Amino acid sequence: MRIGAGIGLVAIGAIIAFAVRDTSGWLNLTALGIIIMLAGVAGIWVSYRLANPRKRGEFNVIDPEVEKQYTTDPPEQVAERPIDVTPSHLREERRD
């Protein structure tokens, strides 16, 4: 059963349960409509679970072999001298 069929059963069950008024003694239409609605909800739930199974366990977004191609080692020395990150208007004049 697909989601559309489940929605259809819920709609038909609601019509039978709430819109149809009949006084037959051997069949309770309200109960029948609610049972059909529950069957529709169960069908929707089952079709959702079959369409979206939970993935259990570990999964990698990137293959580890491919990821190795993009890893780099950090450089041993970044610069010859320390880099001054002070804004230029706050720096003192340096005479080297």
Automatic annotation (TrEMBL):
<keyword id="KW-0812">Transmembrane</keyword>
<feature type="transmembrane region" description="Helical">
    <location>
        <begin position="29"/>
        <end position="48"/>
    </location>
</feature>
<keyword id="KW-0472">Membrane</keyword>
<protein>
    <submittedName>
        <fullName>Uncharacterized protein</fullName>
    </submittedName>
</protein>
<feature type="region of interest" description="Disordered">
    <location>
        <begin position="67"/>
        <end position="96"/>
    </location>
</feature>
<feature type="compositionally biased region" description="Basic and acidic residues">
    <location>
        <begin position="78"/>
        <end position="96"/>
    </location>
</feature>
<keyword id="KW-1133">Transmembrane helix</keyword>
